């Protein structure tokens, strides 16, 4: 049974970007995503929204040339005005939106992007229905009906979850149904049903493509944010998380403490026993630290034998208690059986007046050096 389940998993999830089973939920609901994935996904969504806004802002008014050739003057003027308004809305979206890393900003951007052509589609479809068009003008007018297809096909370029895809595509599908209702008396129902089925099919393909992008992005982020040796977060991702957590703490006036940890006499371990033995010491140390931390705490390998622990919603007293307990539990042993120790510096946002994460890290680093210069195997905080 287990073999069958594993085989089925690889058949279904393999094309979705080498996801772990624990990450399957990432494809359905966005609230399960790690903060770094949310931030990078939000940035990508806004950048692609701006790309689309630029294309639509340029191309939308150009089609007025075709309208001028085939439509009556009164219809052309009204459509041209609608196109100019839509183009101005796209240009505003392009100019006003910048990537912030905030997922709700990304939602607003993509909602506005899809709302503009959807409103244009409903308005133009209603307007064209009031005119008796023939031959070439009727063919061009029929081309307006393809706008929902273009929009739903465009969903494929966004790394979206299933629920996000449903929320974005639903208004467009409803707009198509509304357009059919408004032309109820003259509607060719077999043609409309076939078009709507094709629209649903395109929506399904776009959803699959977007979720595949999300799966691939999840796998890339997972690989890039972790230090391959210890499994702790890498320095680059640690800096992002520090900036994110400190920003949250500043907005909420909450405590946040960082611990800067440097392994004592690590160079001598490498010199005496070799770098492979030194790597095992770092792996064991990271394992011990992770086991002693809360789930909300973040372990970062800062470089070499240096680690940083980010402790959100933790004041200096609680951080000191947690770190001293960690030291009592032990950080592992060296190849000769002696206990591994570390010099640790603590810094807290409000007490140390850190305006940004770099200042917070610098203060913790200074205290770590103070602990090292005063005998090692100790924790330095406050005015020490």
UniProtKB/TrEMBL annotation:
EC number(s) on file: 2.7.7.65
Q: Which UniProt keywords apply?
A: Membrane, Transmembrane, Transmembrane helix
What catalytic reaction does the record list? 2 GTP = 3',3'-c-di-GMP + 2 diphosphate
Q: Name one GO cellular component term.
A: plasma membrane
Enzyme class, first EC level, given as a word: transferase
According to the record, the segments passing through the membrane are 49-70, 76-97, 109-131, 137-158, 165-184, 196-216
- GO biological process terms, semicolon-separated: cell adhesion involved in single-species biofilm formation; negative regulation of bacterial-type flagellum-dependent cell motility
**Which positions make up the signal peptide?**
none
Q: Give the source's domain of life in one word.
A: Bacteria
SUPFAM superfamilies cross-referenced by the UniProt entry: Nucleotide cyclase (SSF55073)
A GO molecular function annotation here is: diguanylate cyclase activity
Pfam families reported for this sequence: GGDEF
Sorted alphabetically, which InterPro entries does this protein's record hold? Diguanylate_Cyclase, GGDEF_dom, Nucleotide_cyclase, Rev_trsase/Diguanyl_cyclase
Kindly give the NCBIfam families that the UniProt entry links to this protein.
GGDEF
**Which protein is depicted?**
diguanylate cyclase
Q: Which organism is it from?
A: Aromatoleum aromaticum (strain DSM 19018 / LMG 30748 / EbN1) (Azoarcus sp. (strain EbN1))
């Amino acid at each position: 049974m287990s073999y069958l389940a594993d085989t089925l998993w690889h058949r279904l999830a393999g094309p979705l970007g080498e996801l772990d089973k624990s990450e399957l939920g990432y494809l359905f609901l966005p609230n399960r995503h790690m903060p770094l994935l949310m931030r990078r996904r939000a940035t990508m969504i806004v950048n692609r929204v701006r790309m689309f806004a630029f294309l639509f802002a340029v191309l939308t008014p150009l089609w007025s040339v075709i309208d001028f050739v085939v439509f009556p003057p009164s219809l052309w003027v009204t459509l041209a005005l609608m196109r100019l308004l839509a183009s101005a809305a796209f240009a505003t979206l392009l100019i006003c939106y910048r990537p912030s890393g905030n997922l709700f900003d990304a939602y607003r951007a993509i909602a506005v992007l899809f709302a503009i052509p959807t409103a244009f589609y409903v308005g133009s479809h209603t307007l064209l229905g009031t005119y008796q068009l023939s031959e070439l003008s009727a063919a061009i007018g029929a081309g307006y009906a393809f706008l929902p297809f273009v929009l739903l096909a465009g969903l494929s370029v966004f790394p979206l979850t299933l629920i996000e895809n449903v929320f974005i595509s639903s208004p467009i599908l409803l707009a198509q149904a509304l357009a059919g209702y408004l032309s109820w008396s003259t509607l060719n129902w077999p043609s409309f049903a076939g078009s709507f089925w094709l629209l649903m099919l395109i929506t399904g393909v776009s959803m699959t493509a977007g979720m595949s992008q999300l799966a691939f992005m999840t796998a890339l982020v997972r690989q890039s944010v972790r230090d391959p040796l210890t499994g702790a977060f890498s320095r680059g991702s640690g800096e992002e998380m520090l900036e994110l957590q400190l920003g949250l703490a500043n907005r909420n006036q909450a405590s946040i403490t960082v611990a800067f940890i440097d392994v004592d006499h690590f160079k001598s371990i490498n010199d005496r026993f070799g770098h492979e033995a030194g790597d095992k010491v770092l792996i064991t140390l990271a394992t011990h630290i992770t086991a002693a931390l809360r789930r909300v705490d973040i372990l970062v390998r800062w470089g070499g034998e240096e680690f940083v622990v980010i402790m959100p919603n933790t004041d200096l007293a609680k951080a000191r208690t947690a770190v001293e307990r960690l030291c009592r539990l032990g950080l592992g042993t060296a190849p000769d059986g002696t206990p591994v120790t570390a010099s640790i510096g603590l810094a807290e946002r409000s007490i140390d007046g850190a305006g940004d994460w770099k200042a917070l890290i610098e203060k913790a680093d200074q205290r770590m050096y103070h602990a090292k210069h005063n005998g090692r195997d100790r924790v330095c905080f406050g005015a020490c």
